[in-house]
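C-ALPHA CELLS:
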Amino acid sequence: MHDDPLVLELEIANFPVKRCLIDGRSSANIIFWEAFTQLNIDHGELSRVNYPVIGFSGASVYPEGSIRLPVQVGRGMSARDLMVDFLVIKVPAAYNVIIGRPFIHDAQAVVSTYHFTMIYLSNLERTERVHGSQETARSCYLTAIKAPGRMVPETNLAREVNMPAKRQRGSQYRKL
C-alpha cells in the first residue's frame, strides 16, 4: 500500500523533463526556475505577472512571469500535444514542474495516484495511458526531506509589510 503522488516525465519545449508532479489540486501549471533555465528559453519571452501564487503553506510568491510552451504526453501514436500556460516560479522545489487542473482538463485526462497512471485522449482521439514511477515519486520526497533548509523559499516571497504596533483587525481573537 502507498500514498505516493503521480510523477511523470513529459516533453516540454522539445526536451524530456523528469519530475513532473501531476496535481489535480493545483489551479495552475508551474515550472520552477531551475528547470525553466535548463530549457534555454530567453527570459525575455516571459510575460509579466502581477499577482502572487499562494502555496499550500499559505506563503505567497510572485512568479517571474508566465510562458506558453508545447507539452507532449505519451509518444508516437499515443502522443497528445498541447500548448500549456506555465507560471515560472523561482523557489527551490523537489519537482521541476507541477501539472495542475488546467492541463488535466485540456488533456481530457483522468489521474489515478493509486495506479500511478494518467489516462488521456491522444491526438488521434483514442484513450491512452501513461504510467508514473513510484521510485521517482519517492526520490522527490527524499529530496525534500533531506534538504529541508534548501526547500524553504528564500527569494521572491511576498511578505506582509511590517504592521504598526496598533492592534490589527481580528487580533482580539485568540489563535488556535
Q: What stands out?
A: The two ends are 34 Å apart (CA to CA). The longest strand covers residues 80-89. Confidence is low (pLDDT under 50) at residues 149-176. The chain is about 15% helix and 35% strand.
